[in-house]
Amino acid sequence: MADLDLARFPRLPLLGLPTPIEPLAGLTRQLGDALNGVRLFVKRDDLAGFGGGGNKLRKLEFLLGAARQEGADTAITVGALQSNHARLTAAASARSGLACELFLTRSVPREQEAYRRNGNRLLDDLFGASVHELPREADNLAAAQARAEALKAEGRRAYVFPAGGSSPVGCLGYAACAAELLGQAEAMGLDLAQIVVPNGSAGTHAGLAAGLAATGRNPRLAKSYAVLAEAEQAFAETLEKANATLDLIKPGARIAADGIVLDGAHRGPGYGIPTDAMREAVRLMARTEGMLLDPVYSGKAFAGLLHDIRAGLYPAGSAVLFVMTGGVPGLFAYPDAFSDASE
Ligand SMILES: *Cc1c(COP(=O)(O)O)cnc(C)c1O
After folding, report:
1. What kind and span of H or E run contains 76?
2. Which residues form the domain of 79?
3. Which keywords label this protein (predicted)?
4. Global pTM?
5. Are residues 115 and 261 in the same domain?
6. 13 part of a folded domain
7. What is the CA(204)–ligand 1 centre distance, in A?
8. 3-class secondary structure for 291-308?
């Protein structure tokens, strides 16, 4: 077992851990030789817990643990209008008895009714969050911090989580996940060649890299496909957050720049903008496995992984693990991307 002692960090259990690791038998049958003999597995972080599930619950275990320890009565966070992180912060706050306020920017150029009202945005209301919608160029973190100050003046105590929950404390969730999945792989006799994740606010990759380094593994075992920032910026953020997280776990330890493996070639024209490869990947997973990728993160990352496997990046027999990060409600904000039934 990979041991990683995070017991000194307060944690609020939100997931039924560990999440399962499963082979992609149907997809492998369908793609046949195109997989070049690579064995594909998924880690089901999309099943997690409640609120619609997804990777942000792992971060929220530590974020809400810290907020509770500090006596917070309100959780405040930020994101785009269809933020999965905002939706899960609302759900986890409801369950923990905290008030929740969300500052959401219209940063994605989509004006469809479904994008503005359905999907995650509908669930934010259902979970009882107070939602503040801001224009594209607004600084939502500054607005959130100003609101926290205003609440403080009223004698309340608000805790502000950054975008994606990717503070060093939030990233501990994926450091813990690294230890969890290494233990599972060992028990299954799997020698993993790569662990693959989408990269938005960089915390999932950063946390995994920190967890791998802290347990004496090579952080290069984790790889991400950037879907939000351009590759160079995503890389810098991932390295910085990985080291800030590792510093919490093992003060003074460092990950070198070559410890971060990141690919920016599958983001397409921008964050939240569909690509043909994303559509193909979402359909393929749905039609061969009955499993759901999402249009913003995991669909693009899985498309990138399939591209690289087809291009022969991994030798035959390699075991590659893709982390299913959730985001299913996002599908309902993108009906136009999938409405052509003939495809
Ligand atoms: C937020 C998110 C990611 C990316 O995680 P980061 O830690 O922000 O990089 C991936 N998939 C889904 C579904 C997400 O909501």
Report:
1. strand 74-80
2. 56-165
3. Pyridoxal phosphate
4. 0.97
5. no
6. no
7. 7
8. CCCCCCCHHHHHHHHHHH
